[in-house]
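Forgive a beginner's question, but would it be possible to get any protein sequence you like and the tokens describing how it folds?
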Amino acid sequence: MITAIQQVMQHETAGDPMTGLKWTHKTTEKIARQLATAGIQVSRTTVGRLLKTMGFSLRVNHKNLASVSCEDRDAQFAHIHRIRETFTHTREPIISVDTKKKELVGNFKNPGVAWQDEPLQVKDHDFRSEAKGLAVPYGIYDLQANRGYVCVGNSRDTPEFAVDAIETWWRHEGKSRHPHAQRLLILADSGGSNSARSRLWKARLQEQLADRHGLSVTVGHYPAGTSKWNPIEHRLFSAISKNWAGRPLDSFETIVNYIRTTTTTTGLRVDACRLHKDYEKGVKISDKAMKALSITTDDTLLKGNYTITPRCR
């Protein structure tokens, strides 16, 4: 039987040279039909069982291949590793930040499954016009404390919104958790609202964190196309997604409550708040304002690393 299946699939098989994992595009029904033409009567269930004994398995696509090549990728990762080690050794705060996927607020289908006595009924289409709004969750993950904080906005994902979220975290949690801190390390992606190229992002970090709270803010940006290495993705956002999987996000309060009740067996705890401000896109920072920033960049990796220090008043 196995030999017959191998013959049917000899031109439809692919495999991983490292793990030995194999896969095929043929369905078990098609394989069963082809075997039937050769005089072998077998059900698709039996075909599936035999495929497993042959090393095949149902698999989904994995987003692991970077589509953007960065010349200084390895050097940047090495730099981030060094500064993380430095801040860890001196017990100064390190946070990983990013915007989680935006969510339509309303009685819409949410991917995943949940234990229910009967299925929840949701709208058959996800029309933006029928939503109560669009939730924009910006997350801050404190690496050393294993604590998450998410600010849920209902406007636009802008650099001003991102820095407001970080400053809110510092006032509500960071300052009391790290009372003696004079420096803060921020790990961020290279694009989006916390883009390494954004003037507004840097200007607001200067005003709202460095000047207002007297913090020296060091920022390390992950290279383009490597956002999945940002710790917040797999340590905070994945846990939130699992917590609300299969449950409609029918209100902003529901979203905040699910975030606040997110925990893991490794001790993760999360808090959340709402940011109601209406953020505008296209805010410009002049050359004069940029020159007034107290910012220094790394000598070798200019774009992805810089430190913003408090300005004298």
